[in-house]
Amino acid sequence: MRFKLNIFVYLVLSCVLFGADINSSIVDGNITTYKAILSQIKKDKNVTDEISLEKTLLSELISSDEYVSFSAKDLNTTLDGNSYRMLFVSFIDDIKKLSKLEDDLDTGRKKISAIESEISALKPKDSKLLSYQLQDAYYHKKVKSIQNTISSLNQEIDKIQTLLEEHIKDIKVDIQDVNKSIEDKQKLLSQYQNQISQYQILKEQSSLIKDTRKIARLDKNLKNTQDLYENALKDLISYDYMMFVSHIQSDNDKAFGMEKSITQKILKYKLLQEDEIDTYISPLLLDISKKYLGQIKTLTGASKQEVMDAVYQTWAFVNKPIFNINDTPISIFKMTMALLVFIFGFIVGALYKRKINKLAYSKRSFTPSTKTILANLGYYLIVTIAFFMALNIIGVKLSSIALVAGALSVGIGFGLQNIVSNFVSGLILMFERSVKIGDYIEVDNDTRGYVTDIRMRSTTITTNENIDIIIPNQNFIQNNVINWTMSDNIRRFSVPFGVAYGTDAHQVMQIIKDAVLNSEYRDDIVENSERQTRVIMTQMADSSVNFELLVWIKGDMLHKPKRTASEFLVLIYDALYANNIEIPFPQQDLHIRSIDSSISFK
């Protein structure tokens, strides 16, 4: 037997010495193989780094082949409420272990690929070849052990899933006890979080003063507290699962909400990754729902839950801050609500103006100017209130507005001063009432018309030609304005005319006065003790004796000065013509003092 073993070892070593390929006899070897190789190596009296590494690897291969891989534990099929809940905790633990093992398996395979690439690059008699072959065998053993563990762990996970599904109706769930446990676990989590934060702060302080002993002690306490936190977290989720079980037992649609709550908490607290939840947790809860609530109800409930989730996600999205104003988060929802309130303010303001206009038409007590003041001031007040309400919805404080107003004042000083000036001038016009809606005014010496509107920035004048002229409000404050109808609707017209020399002046004045007072315009002429129609002589000119008719006019004729002047000129002309009074035209007398005799006239 010893002879055969020596032959085997010789063959193994020959493969190592004469071929730089992957030695399957070492990779697939057992404890006997590795012990034999170790025995041969120990006979070498030279102690080098390579020999030390080979001895270590062989010792690891011998010990690794002695322990048994993970095997599925025997699960008790007789379950009470607490053991059933802890079974769900074990389910989460096994999923976490499985995820780590799969990562380890991937890492192991990468190591095998790397070491075998190194072996292929070595020469057959390289001194490192044996250590590389042993390291390759060590990686293969580890990978095989992980694969066996994963297989056993998958079996255990499947068994736990089966037990959770089959025994759900056999478990008694005390809702009050579950709710109380959830509250207690939440408080406990909060305490652990505070302790973890305190330990982290103390650790940072100790790092600054380089107190290594205290750092080591804090690391230990921090690790213990983090483990307690994770255990409490798993307990909290397991109680949520028991709440889900209670809803399943009572055939309640709230089970679908709890199903979503469980998966969201697991993801939120990072107990499992999203793909692990989708692979294990969600299918388990869905299978339980289908099995005990039925396929149709599960689909209906899931659809409702999806709709609710979509609503919640949309709500979370629109409430997510997109930027900050003075440390105040501004979200899409706030901006939308503020905009709607502002638009609503404009709509209410417009309706208010329309209502005031209707009242002005139905009640004679409303003058045009009163209507304008009430309509515009009310409109601006409503819009201003809506503006501040919008700012309040966004969360902008008045102190922030003061800062903005301070910055805005700089802009006003440079570019907005005319707008502000016109706005203030408009307010002055409304309150001072020197210019009102309906007044007939004259600006710039030749622009006359009715005031039809006074707005925030400008005033509208409609001329007799039905042309609307927009004039900035500050022009009415800074410049001269003639208001023909400010206090009353009466104005004196002056109509000049002339007659030939030799005409009786008294007769002319009487004829014209009588003609005016007896004309068709007598209803528009004001004649009283204070205002009387007069004809006065104004000048003895070169060609004529000039007179002027002074007549007080009221009513619509007042607002048509050119037409009114024309009517009275025609009236004067007719009166003079009827009384054979000559209306002169310009004349010049030419006096010749001497004529040159040399000039002949033919």
Brief overview:
This protein is of the alpha+beta class. It has 17 helices and ten strands. It is elongated and about 165 Å long.
List unreliable stretches of 5+ residues: 1-19, 66-71
**What's the overall geometry?**
elongated
Sheet of most strands:
5 strands, antiparallel
Radius of gyration: 54 Å
- How do the strands of the widest beta sheet line up side by side? 6-5-4-3-7
Class from helix and strand fractions: alpha+beta
Q: How many DSSP helices?
A: 17
- Approximate strand percentage: 5-15%
Taken in chain order, the helices and strands follow as HHHHHHHHHHHEEHHHEEEEHEEHEEH
Instruction: Look at the structure and give the mean pLDDT.
Output: 80
Secondary structure: helix percent: 55-70%
Written account of the structure:
- By secondary structure, the protein is an alpha+beta fold.
- Among the domains are: 2-170; 175-250; 408-487, Roll (SH3 type barrels), CATH 2.30.30; 490-578, Alpha-Beta Plaits.
- It is 65% helix and 10% strand.
- The chain has 17 helices and ten strands.
- The strands form three sheets. Strands 6-5-4-3-7 form a five-stranded antiparallel beta sheet. A three-stranded antiparallel beta sheet has the order 8-10-9, with helices on one face. A two-stranded antiparallel sheet has the order 1-2.
- A hairpin with a 4-residue loop joins strand 9 and strand 10 (545-554).
- Helix 10 (274-293) crosses helix 11 (295-318).
- The N and C termini lie far apart (176 Å).
- Mean pLDDT is 80; it is low at 1-19 and 66-71.
